[in-house]
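Hi R.,

Here's the chain you asked about this morning:
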Amino acid sequence: MTASLWQRYQDWLYYHPGLGLYLDISRVRFDDAFVNTMQPKFAKALQDVEALEQGAIANPDEERMVGHYWLRDPDRAPSPEIRDEIVTIVENIDSFAKKIHSGEIRPPQATKFTDVLSVGIGGSALGPQFVAEALSDIHPPMQIHFIDNTDPAGIDRRMAQLGDRLNSTLVIVTSKSGGTPETRNGMVEVKKFFADKGLDFSRQAVAITMTGSKMDQVAKSEGWLATFPMLDWIGGRTSELSAVGLLPAALQGIDIHAMLAGAKEMDAATRAKELKQNPAALLAMSWYYEGNGKGEKDMVILPYKDSLLLFSRYLQQLVMESLGKEQDLDGNTVYQGIAVYGNKGSTDQHAYVQQLREGVPNFFATFIEVLRDREGTSVDIEPGATSGDFLSGFLQGTREALYDNNRGSITITIPEVTPHMVGALIALYERAVSFYASFVNINAYHQPGVEAGKKAAAVILDLQKQVMQTLKQSPSPLSVQALADAAGASDHVETVYMIVRHLAANNRGVTVEGDLAKPASLMVKA
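And the predicted structure, written out as tokens:
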């Protein structure tokens, strides 16, 4: 290391004494002139985020506020009603988890609940999965399982893993609107498994949803054990510190109050008015520099700790759904976004670091270092070197190798993986996303692309119904083109072909005859 690089490290190192967190951006090659150009953007971003915290409408598409920061500091909420609602939800989660653990609330056919089955998708699954992997004890009071897709084979596998413990499994169904197809499908599938085993689903089910939603109505009409509210001003990707993440964490015995406290402490740090004293701003500035303000480089997340394996998956949604936007706030077509992927150290040494070191330089890396190796002492693998020393060496060596070949990197160092620290990491990235969105003049809090995909899927399912109706009414087999014509979908022949191919593969009352390599020659009948 040159003397100038060592000095740069000291000049740009951020340290939070309360959290024991370090942020090092010295291996991002910006200069003072670039920092000066970012100062006005930083000042505007501070104002933008302050307005959000005070209750400004952040999502004009849905006319709603965005207030995930109020969850960990209710006194900052814009009204006493919101403050009281936040406090009450956490109190109810505490009370419910204690009653579940004590057996005061128990399943009809077992003495206590032993497992949690979480049914949700996107933000309703990724945050709870990350936190479970990071913080759950080896022998938690309740084991957690996830159905986070509408894949029938995946659902079967998860239910088979529960096996005879289904009668002691608490099911949490999470959907803000109650109309999310994947979550509804999972709920219907799980209900059938319960019915097939002679179990009463409603006596073992909990809903996390908006008050008055379809799911809220179902849960109350069927007499589910409990419902916990999702709040209008919380989006899925920022919901981990709401009931969405706090309830499953509490049931696993994770200290949710420490998570909230860590997030609150980090939030305070990210309100700092000086750029060098604001860790979220430093992160966002580094992203902006590396991607030229246009997302020209991918963000590679490399946590050197097994328990943080799922952090990159969690950040994929937080970053990509927030920043991946076609238009900016002025209506200009900008195609913004930052692609996120990652593995874990030192697995990545044997997976893709070769490309990071010598391949296409279309990325910047974020190393996450955890100082404490383990509980207790470590055996020497070699004289004076433990497994943890090797892990640290791999991180430092990879960081140096990337820099030597003109690949930028950020390093976040934390003392250990605790609820307090995980809450802080979540808050750090949430605020960095807000700052970056302001830097590039986009709305981080809507997702028109996601909604477009949902609408397109609904159109295809409607067409499937029309195809089946047409086949049942036809006295003879039809070619794919003739079927499409008769179903009123002449311009969607390929979609009709894919529909019937899927139905035939699953014995859904459709038969396809002919040369499968020549789709146009196939004949289809019901």
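The chain has a mean pLDDT of 96.

Let me know if you need anything else.
M.
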